[in-house]
Specification:
The protein is an alpha/beta fold. Helices cover 44% and strands 17% of the residues. The chain folds into two domains: 40-119 and 285-329, 3-Layer(aba) Sandwich (D-Maltodextrin-Binding Protein, domain 2), CATH 3.40.190.10; 127-261, D-Maltodextrin-Binding Protein, domain 2 (3-Layer(aba) Sandwich). It has helices at 2-36, 49-58, 71-83, 98-102, 136-143, 161-164, 183-198, 201-206, 210-217, 234-242, 252-258, 274-278, 296-299, 301-311, 313-316, and strands at 40-44, 63-67, 89-92, 111-125, 175-178, 226-229, 247-251, 263-265, 285-293, 327-329. α2 links the parallel β1 and β2.
């Protein structure tokens, strides 16, 4: 009985030792994990979400993207970047204003800009005899619920391309592109309506509220003239190939993969060439800009690792990861 008691006591001591050792080790590992697996928080415009999700899948740290939906959120994110390292980067499609850049001056910091490439949309058709250029006016007339002249006149509802432009065939209007509820379509529609609805003096007088006017201008017909598709544009490729009189809107990389089957359409008189995109001449494209404060690359290893990886040619080069998902690289 005494021997049993001694054995149990020894067992208890050993168990306690192992428990304490394991607990200390676990606590140590947890601390290390919180450092090594620290989440990188980045401000990001929603239209860039799909592209940067592909980057996140291949980056060895977890990234949390904070959506920048409006000016106030963008302003607050810039201020946080200037104040601390909590949000080290802001990735947007519109350059920061001088006022926004000055925010960091109040904290004795310098805000830097890095352009990593462009994203572009291209109109395609399988009709290789189609030589007529597309314009924002043509697309607006073909898709808009409203008259280009005013919102009271609903008689100007075009059914065929020929009704809009006599140079076009007498076929029904049919365009395949990004879902109408997507950020991509909102970008495109803003271009279609800018000089054809938003700039109309009558519309501005009748609808002084800018946001309300834009929402009205963006309304598209529900008669099948426009059909939304997913990011990979599989439906668009299939339908446009089969329907010679239809047009598709695809990203630059998808056109490159299928250019033997389709021809591109100039838009507003500009060819969607890589050179025109990189020179800011092609209207259906936008730059991808990263903003960060100068000191963050030396104060945060995680930020430095991200910056080096995102600038690597294997990421943003012409044959890099993101080029497979629409990035038009600025690297040679």
């Amino acid at each position: 009985m005494i021997h049993l008691h001694i054995k149990l006591k020894k067992f208890a001591v050993i168990f306690l030792f192992l428990f304490v050792t394991f607990f200390q080790k676990s606590s140590y590992c947890d601390d290390n994990d919180s450092i090594n697996e620290k989440i990188l928080r980045i401000g990001l415009e929603p239209i860039l979400q799909n592209l940067f999700n592909k980057f996140s899948d291949n980056f060895y740290h977890q990234i949390s993207y904070i959506k920048i939906n409006n000016f106030n959120e963008r302003y607050n994110t810039i201020r946080k970047i200037c104040q601390s390292d909590d949000i080290p980067f802001l990735i947007v499609t519109n350059p920061l204003s001088d006022y926004e850049k000055m925010l960091c001056k109040n904290y004795n910091e310098e805000l830097l800009e890095e352009k990593i490439g462009y994203f572009a949309f291209i109109f395609i058709t399988s009709n290789k005899e189609d030589r007529v250029d597309l314009t924002s006016s043509t697309i607006f007339k073909g898709l808009s619920t409203h008259s280009m002249k005013n919102f009271n006149n609903s008689n100007e509802q075009y059914k065929s391309w020929h009704e809009i432009n006599k140079s076009f065939p007498k076929s029904d209007i049919k365009i395949y592109g990004p879902f109408a509820e997507s950020q991509e379509f909102e970008f495109l529609s803003n271009i279609f309506i800018k000089n054809n609805c938003m700039a109309n003096a009558y519309n501005q007088e009748k609808f002084p509220d800018f946001l309300k006017l834009r929402k009205l201008c963006q309304e598209i017909k529900k008669d099948g003239s426009y059909i939304g598709d997913s990011v990979d544009a599989r439906l668009t490729i299939e339908k446009v190939f089969a329907e010679k009189s239809s047009y598709g809107i695809v990203s630059y990389d998808i056109y490159e993969k299928h250019k033997d089957s389709f021809v591109y359409k100039n838009f507003d008189g500009v060819e969607p060439s890589r050179q025109n995109i990189l020179n800011d001449k092609y209207p259906l494209s936008y730059p991808i800009l990263i903003y960060y404060k100068k000191s963050v690359l030396s104060s945060s290893k995680l930020a430095k690792d991200f910056f080096q990886e995102i600038k690597n040619k294997n990421t943003i080069g012409q044959d890099g990861l993101l080029a497979n998902y629409g990035l038009v690289s600025i690297q040679k």
